[in-house]
Design a protein that fits this description.
The structure holds 2 protein chains of 2 kinds.
Chain A: E1 3-6, E2 19-24, H1 25-29, H2 46-62, E3 70-77, H3 79-83, H4 85-95, E4 101-105, H5 110-116, E5 121-124, H6 127-135, E6 140-142, E7 155-160, H7 161-165, H8 173-191, E8 200-206, H9 211-223, E9 230-233, H10 240-246, E10 250-252
Parallel strand pairs in A: 2-3, 2-5, 3-4, 5-6, 7-8, 7-10, 8-9
Antiparallel strand pairs in A: 1-4
Chain B: E1 6-11, E2 14-19, E3 48-52, H1 54-57, E4 58-59, H2 61-70, H3 72-81, E5 88-89, H4 93-109, E6 117-123, H5 130-139, E7 146-149, H6 156-161, E8 164-169, H7 172-180, E9 185-188, E10 202-206, H8 216-224, H9 226-235, H10 247-261, E11 271-277, H11 285-294, E12 301-304, H12 311-317, E13 321-324, H13 327-335, E14 340-342, H14 355-360
Parallel strand pairs in B: 3-6, 3-8, 6-7, 8-9, 10-11, 10-13, 11-12, 13-14
Antiparallel strand pairs in B: 1-2, 4-5, 9-14
Helix pairs in contact in B: 2-3, 8-9, 12-13
Classes of the chains: A alpha/beta, B alpha/beta.
């Protein structure tokens, strides 16, 4: 039985125009959270939450009546977590997180929750959860300890070529459609800012294939409404060094599922 | 703007044929006749990575003007509007073409080897400009399969990530940063006219002090004058100079040369190196040569000018690129059509040149 609770501390977003993203309990509060305390410590999702909030602030600065904002919901994915509802609400308020709603679901119905809440991107620390959500049409991204060192002033999204050229890999028609939808929103948000000093930054990294596959990717993204800021064509060179320089908050690839470390 | 053309490169009597790579939607891989080995990008750790910025590889003067006068948004709009128009070649273009010619000859001799030049485009430009750059690379049939468009961020981190052996840029600030990080780098200038250079033999010319060697002798000259400099050099003739920022690059060139020698191509080696120094053969030259020898490095031709201007001799040599730490020489070379690069290293950058001295003395130290 899923219960959805509004966070009265946070102004609710426009349901039709907001870009809803869901973050799991385990990402927001971290594994040490299960020690019986009523105020949980923050987990690997903190920089992401901060930066999403920052993007919203900047969007509102540009246009105080802006409705195309990020709408963050916290979701629990097992019954134990579901039972911690009051501690979760307390902790969220204690830390002043801009989470507008809580979905208290279990392992059996969290995906349904995601779908019902129109979630456009699902953040989790669990690979299985990400895979399952993607199969059901909800694009997902993995967060891990690398997420902790990401900047909090600029949302850095990294695209890898597989998502663009072979968007059917490991994903369904439904998730492909949602992914494109999400990209269109991101693109629109980005357009509201100039070339410099933007709170959003899109980076494309193509590891395999030469400049022409990178070219294809740039054009495809452009046709989806996403103008890429930075592009790296590695031509077979290893991706690790570049990733640690770029520090993306998340990777979008392979139908938007796994963040490869 | 797809272009497909067959280009024939004739090298030492052998014909090497390659298809021009096509643009975007077509199959991007270059198709080759069975007799030639396939061209794929070597791994960074095996190859010699030369990073060039967009403004030295191509002529972007007009666009640069738009950026300076009208700002970034207009600049990007202009670039995107002219996306299918290729840029014309910049000062580094013939150098890059010569690197490719060497690669072709190396592949002939060592088909499986990855010890090749690998040219990487590293630019501060945003990816919006990327498509025009990629289109231009294809138009000129350059074999550049790696690039970084950093969207305004400093490229230095990426230079290190790609094991860069040499970085060429038109921006002295970035070049300086790179040198500080221990990466061989130089600021490239566009000569008003560019003399014709060889399409089959790569020629690289280096100044000695503060380029191949450290600036220790320069420091003596600046502090104590010419006589003290000669004394010092004579006294330390057998003590090798410390290495300068471009010693490593000469070293990798030497390694490639040896691969040609091993196949009997010493006399007509496709790589030729030159030392062009204001030192004089009679007095201070010995130490320079002995230093090179102690490093196990060979240089094909050493020209001791004893203070004479470098422009005319470079005009005769026709190198694809010339490195010097003093703008006076860089400008002199560029005036006569040589692609000259400034290496902002050592004492010459901090102390103004003693130009007056040059007129008075027969031989000066640079």
């Amino acid at each position: 039985m899923v219960s959805t609770v509004t966070n009265s501390d946070v102004k609710q977003k426009d349901v039709d125009q907001a870009v809803v993203v869901a973050v799991t309990f385990a990402a927001v509060f971290g594994p040490e959270a299960e020690d019986g305390s009523t105020v949980y410590r923050l987990g690997v999702a903190l920089p992401l939450l901060q930066v999403l909030q920052r993007v919203n602030e900047r969007l509102l600065e540009k246009n105080p009546a802006e409705h195309q904002l990020f709408d963050v919901i916290l979701i629990t994915t097992d019954s134990w977590q579901q039972q911690q509802n009051s501690s979760i609400i307390n902790s969220t308020r204690h830390h002043g997180l801009e989470i507008s709603r809580f979905c208290f679901s279990t392992e059996d119905n969290y995906i349904e929750s995601l779908v019902q809440n129109n979630v456009q991107l699902f953040f989790t620390t669990d690979g299985n959860e990400a895979l399952q959500a993607t199969h059901q049409g909800v694009p997902s991204a993995l967060l891990d300890k690398n997420s902790v060192s990401c900047p909090s002033e600029q949302l850095r999204v990294l695209f890898c070529e597989k998502a663009i050229i072979q968007p059917n890999m490991g994903s369904t028609e439904a998730s492909k459609k949602s992914a494109q939808n999400f990209l269109a929103h991101l693109g629109q948000m980005r357009q509201k800012f100039g070339v410099f000093d933007s709170p959003l930054c899109f980076t494309l990294v193509t590891s395999h294939g030469g400049k022409d596959s990178c070219c294809c990717a740039l054009k495809s993204l452009r046709s989806l409404g996403v103008s890429v800021d930075e592009a790296y064509c590695l031509g077979g060179a290893p991706r690790g060094p570049i990733l640690s320089l770029l520090r993306p908050h998340f990777l979008l690839s392979d139908g938007f599922s796994l963040l490869e470390g | 703007m797809s272009r497909s053309s067959i280009q024939t490169l004739t090298i030492s009597g052998q014909d090497v044929v390659k298809n021009g790579s096509q643009n975007s939607s077509e199959d991007a891989k270059a198709l080759l006749k069975p007799s030639t080995p396939s061209k794929k990008t070597p791994k960074p750790e095996n190859s010699i990575t030369i990073a060039v910025s967009s403004r030295v590889l191509f002529n972007m003067d007009k666009e640069q003007q738009i950026f300076e006068q009208q700002g970034m948004e207009e600049y990007i709009k202009y670039q995107v509007a002219h996306e299918t128009e290729p840029f014309s070649p910049g000062p580094a273009f013939s150098f890059v073409k010569a690197l490719e010619a060497v690669n072709t000859q190396l592949r002939d001799l060592y088909p499986e080897s990855e010890e090749l030049f690998d040219v990487v485009l590293i630019t501060n430009n945003h990816a919006y400009v990327g498509l025009r750059l990629i289109n231009t690379i294809n138009h000129h049939q350059l074999f550049i399969e790696r690039f970084c468009m950093t969207g305004g961020n400093s490229p230095i981190g990426y230079l290190k990530a790609y094991n860069t052996n040499l970085y060429l840029s038109s921006d002295p600030v970035k070049v300086h940063e790179a040198l500080e990080q221990g990466i061989a780098a130089a600021t490239m200038f566009t000569p008003e006219k560019m003399t014709e250079v060889s399409e089959t033999q790569l020629r690289v010319a280096f100044d000695g002090d503060a380029v191949l060697f450290s600036d220790e002798s320069e420091q003596i000259y600046k502090a104590h004058g010419l006589d003290k400099f000669f004394e010092h050099e004579k006294a330390h003739e057998n003590k090798p100079l410390d290495h300068g920022p471009l010693k490593g690059f000469l070293e990798v060139l030497g390694k490639l040369q040896k691969r040609f020698y091993a196949k009997g191509q010493r006399m007509d080696c496709p790589i030729r190196t030159y030392l062009v120094t204001a030192r004089s053969a009679a007095s201070s030259g010995a130490r320079a040569l002995k230093t090179l020898r102690s490093w196990g490095l060979e240089i094909d031709e050493a020209l001791f000018l004893a203070g004479a201007p470098k422009g005319p001799i470079l005009e005769k040599i026709r190198p694809h690129i010339f490195f010097d730490d003093q703008m006076f020489h860089v400008e002199g070379a560029a005036e006569m059509g040589t692609v000259a690069c400034h290496v902002p290293y050592g004492i010459a950058q901090r102390v103004p040149e003693r130009k007056g001295l040059k007129d008075k003395e027969i031989s000066s130290i640079k």
